[in-house]
Design a protein that fits this description.
About 75% of the residues lie in helices and about 0% in strands. Strand 1 and strand 2 form a beta hairpin.
Length: about 210
Amino acid sequence: MSDKKIAILDTAEDLIAVNGYRSTTTRMIAEEAGVNVAMLSYYFGSKEQLLKALLDRHTANVKRLLEQITSKKEHPVTTFRKFLFAFVDYSFENPKPVIIAIREIGLLNQRPEILKDLQKTMLEVHGMFINVLARAKKNGYLRNIDIELCVLTFSSTVESYLVNMFMFEKGFPFLGIEKTTVDAMRERLKNHLSTLLDQMTKDSAF
């Protein structure tokens, strides 16, 4: 991918995360990225396709990260815990695409061609989580749980926590949780998810 294309994607991510998709124009993105609108159109065709490319990049990065962990062939519960921690770390270091995806879900529902591609990639990522849990369950390391809902519980917790932390200056106004440092919030989330996983396994030593 060319430097100009990366610059356009990075700029679009910054502006859409702050202003929202509808309030961010291609002209704004082009000016901030130091290119003209014609170049933006050449690379992406339209603002919708630019949004799709932005979200595709995010899910591809997550998938690649999880594939690196899977390749080590460790105990399935250990692998799943590493999945969770890696997902938390990546999301905290790259919060904007997560915020954009959640904020613009209504828009995506109106654009079935974009939503279909995004769903395909997301299903591949969720499928990796599901496969690891299924392997753990097959080996007797999980109690009687619904694997798909378990993955949804973990992923939704991370996404909700992240959105609240970055969108509300003082933390979680509806829960009374005070916002501290980013690192402290990240570790608190990891500890919580790890405890949940321990409660689902027969042996919390993993």
